[in-house]
Design goal:
about 475 residues, alpha/beta, Rossmann fold, six-stranded mixed sheet
């Protein structure tokens, strides 16, 4: 299995090198040269598999010989063995045709655990084998940071630097990052928004000369991405689409999914699952008022606007990094053509596809937006109708599922991306009682915190890394 850049000018890499590289040298994102395909009989044979066995079956072709089968199996077993629900990703039925798949039973109560707990183990294994030192640099709009820290903090030869927008994540989200105190963990609160943090990550990967002289006990040092630009993140998320579809009758029965998303990574995993043969009817993009993705699917209008702070902060994103991976396919996998499109977007802040390419996207995707008022109303209504308490991101997904899925005959699964305990403000605004923290986080608000507030400035961030190292 080889991986190619969406912009066509970077060398093809193996899984191992893609895992450690993140952003391609030409500024693009790595995608598989081809997708493994499962026939209907292959998929039928997966019915009844435990989540860990299913994960191994889906992931192995992407990893190829970078990690041997037994070692990969141990990593997968360890990763999902830490989840606090035996089903790992249980399905809950809301009404006759709508389901929620709970993706928050991992150690940090968010869907990011599915990928980042495995990613940390993969990084630790490969860095140790190569005798190299990793500098993890990431940006988070809320949940990625704590999952990345939890997944990577025990890795040998790894230092972790996570940027979050100062005062723009929930208290629980922030404390899940900043109360994990260790010499190799550095939380940076940036005086800006998530897009500012993400832009600094991309700039740092594009020019890594600032890492020259980074002391790592004589080991070769490399910058490592844990954001969803890292293909391994997408790879691990493909599994739960198969899990849900199989539970609901695949391959004999198609399934649709509603996905609350800002960075397009989680729903792109569903797009890949479809490309691997999973019978997916529709993929519904659910956004909050930061609705660049909805505007694209609704009106072919992918244009930067002012970013607004919301009750669903993990979706407070205006530039969706993983969207480039879909655009690559919509342009016939022509890297040169896509590079031109992305250059125009980066210069002018807007993007519009040829009508034929846009219509191709609409064959699979639908979308809608939900502002804070709509999200709170949905939280309240879902609780009244089914006794189910949804976090604000999941509520956006449920709203989209019911609005866009009303005419679908296939069951619609909303991805419940986070535990409602992480967003008490939204629950209270919905006139409901905020849930209690689970036992392993019961003392979270009493724990000591450690983080550094920095200006929204690339040089300040890079100086911090080199001076703190």
């Amino acid at each position: 299995m080889k991986y190619i850049s969406t912009r066509g000018q970077a060398p093809a890499l193996s899984f191992e090198d893609v895992l450690l590289t993140g952003l391609a040298s030409d500024g693009g994102l790595y995608v598989p040269e081809f997708l493994p395909r499962f026939s209907a009989s292959d998929i039928k044979a997966m019915r009844g598999l435990p989540y860990t066995d299913l994960a191994l079956r889906i992931i192995q072709p992407f990893v190829a010989d970078a990690v041997d089968h037994d070692t990969l199996k141990n990593m997968v077993d360890e990763t999902y063995g830490e989840f606090n629900h035996a089903a790992v990703a249980p399905l809950v039925q809301l009404d006759h045709n709508n389901y929620v798949m709970e993706l928050f039973h991992g150690p940090t109560l968010a869907f990011k655990d599915f990928a980042l707990q495995l990613l940390g183990r993969l990084l630790g294994h490969i860095l140790k084998r190569r005798n190299e030192h990793g500098v993890v640099l990431g940006a988070t709009s809320g949940d990625t940071g704590s999952a990345a820290i939890e997944g990577c903090r025990h890795c040998d030869n790894v230092d972790i630097y996570i940027m979050h927008p100062h005062q723009r994540v929930s208290d629980v989200q922030r404390r899940q990052m900043t109360t994990l105190i260790s010499d190799n963990i550095h939380n940076l609160a940036i005086e800006g928004n998530f897009d500012d943090c993400q832009a600094m990550v991309k700039a740092s990967f594009a020019d890594q000369s600032f890492l020259d002289g980074y002391p790592a006990n004589g080991l070769k040092t490399r910058l490592i991405a844990v954001n969803s630009i890292n293909w391994a993140r997408i790879m691990a998320q493909i599994v739960y689409y198969f899990h849900a579809a199989l539970t609901l009758g695949a391959p004999a029965r198609p399934v649709s999914f509603s996905v609350p998303t800002g960075n397009f990574g989680d729903i792109f995993a569903g797009y890949i699952a479809k490309g691997m043969g999973l019978p997916i009817d529709r993929l519904i993009v659910a956004t909050n008022q930061n609705d660049i993705l909805h505007r694209f699917f609704a009106a072919n209008d992918y244009r930067k606007e002012t970013l607004h702070h919301s009750l669903s902060p993990s979706m407070d994103i205006m530039v969706s990094s993983n969207f480039e991976r879909l655009l690559f396919d919509l342009h016939g996998r022509d890297g040169a053509a896509l590079a031109e499109v992305m250059q125009h977007f980066e210069t002018n802040g807007e993007l519009k596809l040829d009508d034929a390419n846009w219509q191709q996207a609409l064959e699979l995707f639908d979308s809608t937006r939900a502002d804070d008022e709509t999200i709170c109303a949905t939280i309240s209504q879902v609780w009244q109708d089914s006794g189910y308490l949804a976090d604000p991101h999941t509520a956006a997904g449920i709203y989209a599922a019911k609005k866009c899925g009303a005419k679908l005959t296939s069951p619609v699964v909303t991805l419940a991306t986070a535990h409602p305990v992480k967003f008490p403000q939204a629950i209270v605004k919905a006139d409901l009682k905020a849930p209690d923290l689970p036992p392993h986080l019961a003392d979270l608000h009493q724990r000591d915190e450690k983080y550094t507030v920095l200006d929204n400035d690339l040089q300040a961030v890079q100086n911090y890394l080199t001076n703190r190292s």
